[in-house]
Specification:
The protein is built from 5 helices and 6 strands, in the order βαβαβαβααββ. By secondary structure, the protein is of the alpha/beta class. The protein has one domain (2-153): HUPs (Rossmann fold). The two termini are 17 Å apart. 30% of the residues are buried.
Length: 156
């Protein structure tokens, strides 16, 4: 059975990646793992005096919000999945989780800046492509009235 990791952030672009995985799941047995990674936003010096459970609760709630729409899509379609929440450097955490779960691939959306801006600004999807030992499928949602376009790349 193929196992894929789908990073989501609550955006429509992320939902396009979930829809692509749902399409692929119809073709054969597939285990789907959703993940939301929250970047650490509290510098260590601000942690002094803040109870750790408040920080943990903040990250958990943000992850729950980001996962909600993708979880609903999968639940409504009757597609089984497992959700994961993590905190840390986004691309590195996605790749590490894919390894930990023994995933055969990662399916994710692009940010949509375009190739030039992406090269200048960098992006999570570009970093995942460079770091991942498993294939990465990038899904772009051009517009709501068009089908999504997929490009598979990564290391074999």
């Amino acid at each position: 059975m193929k196992r894929v990791l789908v990073p989501v952030d609550g955006s429509e672009r992320a939902e396009a990646a979930v829809r692509e995985v749902m399409r692929q799941a119809q073709a054969g047995a597939m285990e789907i793992d959703l993940i939301n990674v929250q970047p650490r936003i509290f510098p260590e010096e601000t942690l002094i005096g803040l109870p750790p459970e408040k920080i943990d609760t903040y990250y958990y709630e943000q992850g729950t919000k980001a996962l909600a729409s993708s979880e609903k899509l999968l639940r409504d379609a009757g597609v089984p999945f497992t959700s994961h929440r993590a905190v840390g450097p986004i691309a590195e955490t996605i790749v590490a989780k894919a390894g930990e779960l023994g995933c055969d691939g990662i399916v994710m959306s692009t940010r949509g800046h375009g190739k030039i801006a992406g090269m200048l600004l960098g992006s999570v999807s570009t970093k995942v492509l460079h770091l991942s030992p498993v294939p990465v499928t990038l899904v772009t949602a051009e517009r709501r009235d068009r089908n999504c376009v997929t490009e598979e790349t990564g290391k074999a």
